[in-house]
Design a protein that fits this description.
Layout: H1 3-8, H2 12-23, H3 32-47, E1 51-57, E2 61-67
Antiparallel strand pairs: 1-2
Length: about 90
């Protein structure tokens, strides 16, 4: 697949709709909202065909982990992100 084909295959509306659904969560650090967003992300990853789970981390928090296994013996690619947010200070 060429770069042009890849870019043409991206559903921009679906991406923006997904982003809109994620930012509706009040995912402040170390709150139930942060855990709810992690659960949402795991559910969405499962919908894409990934193996997804919630992994406990210190502080009564969880990480959403998704794995999409390849068929070959090539290298892996890792995407890492934070979903917690904090209110803006004035």
């Amino acid at each position: 697949m060429t770069e042009e084909q890849l870019l043409a295959s991206i559903d921009e509306k679906a991406c923006l709709d997904f982003l809109a659904r994620t930012v509706q969560h009040k995912s402040y650090s170390q709150t139930d909202g942060e855990s709810a967003l992690a659960a949402f992300m795991a559910h969405e990853m499962q919908g894409l065909g990934l193996e997804a789970s919630l992994t406990p981390v210190p502080g009564n928090r969880v990480n959403a982990i998704g794995r999409w296994r390849g068929a070959g013996g090539g290298k892996s690619l890792l995407f890492n992100s934070h979903v917690d947010t904090n209110r803006a200070c004035r």
